[in-house]
Amino acid sequence: MRVPALTLAAAGATLLAPAALPVPAAAAHPRDRPAARSEGGVAAADLLARLGECQEISHGRYSTDEGSPANVPVCGTQDAVFWKADLDIDCDGRPGARCNRGTDPQFASTTAYQQSDGRYLNAETLPYIVVPAPSPIWNPEEDGVRGGSVAAVVYRDQVQYAVVGDTGPGNVIGEASYATARGLGLRPDPDGGGAPSDVTYIVFKNSRVDPIEDHAAAVAEGERLARMFVARK
Questions:
Q1: pLDDT in tens, 5-39
Q2: What is the pTM of this model?
Q3: 80-90 confidence digits (pLDDT tens)
Q4: Which of these, 11, 178, 209, 217, is most buried using a 10 Å CB contact count?
């Protein structure tokens, strides 16, 4: 079950935003779920092996869904933070053919961070992840995680580079954009798509892509940081 992401805009602004034309979820085309293809040259297995045992940096644990057990810690290394959870689909941001109020009942037309032109992010085209809002459990900014930070999302043998693009509830973790799920070969439908478990989110501390919408830059920087990460003794 996905929960609405929190944004820096007031909730009232979301309610006043013009609604996109409804598009039935069933209208999604088969090409929405392509064969997965890893980005960059760093293997998923090498990234996972480098993480090692979890050194918890969160002061408590997160739920993957509202009302589910809180059993997901945020872990830390010298260079990165990481967690292993499910992947719920975040369709929030600029409405399009596949992300709008017709396809996603919880759709919000805003994201916590904006593009360089002032528009909200496009979940259909930009791979991004959602981090929890600051809470007593964990404050991401204290560990160098903020809007535009570079992430490697690992599922099975696939690696998808992304940016931190939105924030969610302070007690729930495990959400990424439509484009992130699609890049991993997952069904990106916000109604039941994604993965129920075994997705690892690695965010490189104090990294940043500017402008946030430049995915090619995120891949280049992500691969550079990933190579350094797996090479560190």
A1: 554 333 333 333 333 334 333 344 444 555 456 77
A2: 0.86
A3: 999 999 999 99
A4: 178
Kindly state the tokens that stand for 32. Answer: 């929405």
Give the residue-averaged pLDDT of 51-63: 97
**Both tokens assigned to 168:** 């969610």
Whole-number Cα distances in Å, 13 to 8, 18, 134, 165: 10, 10, 22, 19
What's the confidence (pLDDT) of residue 14? 34
Structure-block tokens of residue 50: 């480098």
Phi-psi region for residue 49, left (φ > 0), alpha (ψ -120 to 50) or beta? alpha
8 A C-beta contact, residue 64 and residue 174: yes
Amino acid type, 25: A
Please state, in angstroms and as integers, the Cα–Cα distance from residue 17 to each residue in 9, 109, 123, 133, 221, following that order: 11, 7, 17, 23, 34
Number of neighbouring beta carbons within 10 Å of residue 78: 8
Q: Tokens for 206?
A: 């104090």
